[in-house]
Amino acid sequence: MIHEREPIIALATANGRASVGIIRLSGTGVLQISKALCFRELAPRHATLVQFNDASGELIDEGLAIAFPAPNSYTGEDVLELQCHGSTPALNLLLDHCLQLGKSMGLRLARPGEFTERAFLNGKMDLAQAEAVADLIDASSTLAAKGAAKSLKGDFSKKIDVFLNALIEIRALTEATLDFPEEEIDFIEQHDVFNRLEKILTNIEEVKKAAQQGSIIRDGLTVVLVGQPNVGKSSLMNALAGEDIAIVTDVAGTTRDRLKETILLDGVPLHIIDTAGLRETQDSVEQIGIERTWQAIEQADLVLHLMDLTQGSQISTEDQDLIKRIKLKTSKNVPIKIVWNKLDQSSKQNADLEDQWFVSAKTGQGLEQLKSELLKVAGWQPESEGGILARKRHVEALLNAEQHIKNALVLLKAQTSSIELAAEEMRLAQDELSTITGQFLPDDLLGKIFSTFCIGK
């Protein structure tokens, strides 16, 4: 992998009025820029009070300059940080002046996430830790911040490395045996291959559970409210959000477009999407809203199908047909739950029916139980607080690695066992696990990951 060395610069703090603003530079030559800017040699890792002047010698601002010579810096390269008042015009003047000073050495504006990308490429952190930097910045809850901090510290990576190294050792022994086919059975027994692979599977299962919890904390759960018009979808959204987000009337078709609101339940983000009522209509605007409802259903982690309890507690033929259509639109693993609304207006309730909940969006009756059930459906375990913060790609890699190891075990246990095929399954499992920490990466993955970062980090 080619490491970029051209110097880069970016504003490391948010645009807007603030007490402090920070400009960061990294790469070969930035310490020379500091001499031209500050008119002095900066002591490494010491904050120096300086006046920042423009090319004509006029004062831009007064602030601090800190030099971090390589390799003892965030990126592993020479780094210069300039701290001054958080004035957008002053920061822009200082940034433009630095670009002029560094023009001869190729100083340019940084891409999103490029500082952290260089830290990864220079071995300052692995890929899981680099992703945790962005996750910590984007954390929407205390739980998310704690989980991201643990991953940034390396807790997640250490867990992966433990069973990755164990798998590599077994794979190496397996491939060494290929030259001695008559000793295959002795190899399996002598090195206790079955038990060692089973232990790796157990370890993966534990980390996978923690990663799934972390993925829930990070990404939240997308809950789509669907149903026929006037069953109370907008009312339920308002009740869950605790404020009047959606317009509620008795007129069918009031909601004509998707409305989205994020709420926190026990620190877990729930992205609630209210949709247009699903029905046949000649209204062109409403038709667009209904089409967007189907698009939202395709992206759902959970679908709540609302029905009006005052119309009876038996699922109507129309709703049965709707549920069948919804199942065709969603992934096979996406649960579809029935929510009977308007409990305050009806005494009908069939507690024997599974996956059906009863609420009154108007009075709040049954709402707390519904929230609790939503967390259960999400797979959230309250005792998992403080776990690692993982991404969906981490969970997918763990699931794939788990399956490859199971395949290897099946091949090794078969009467006509194939050591070659088992070794290949172990290699595939190793590749999957290595994508988490960045030891092995598909060509396009790195660019996709860092493109989601903010500029200046």
UniProtKB/TrEMBL annotation:
Cofactor comment text: Binds 1 potassium ion per subunit.
Gene Ontology terms, cellular component aspect? cytosol
A GO biological-process term: tRNA methylation
Looking at its record, which EC class is this enzyme? hydrolase
Task: Reply yes or no: does the keyword Magnesium apply.
Answer: yes
For the ligand ((6S)-5-formyl-5,6,7,8-tetrahydrofolate), the binding residues are R24, E81, K124, K457
> What name has this protein been given in UniProt?
tRNA modification GTPase MnmE
Q: What is the lineage of its organism?
A: Bacteria, Pseudomonadati, Pseudomonadota, Betaproteobacteria, Burkholderiales
Gene that produces this protein: mnmE
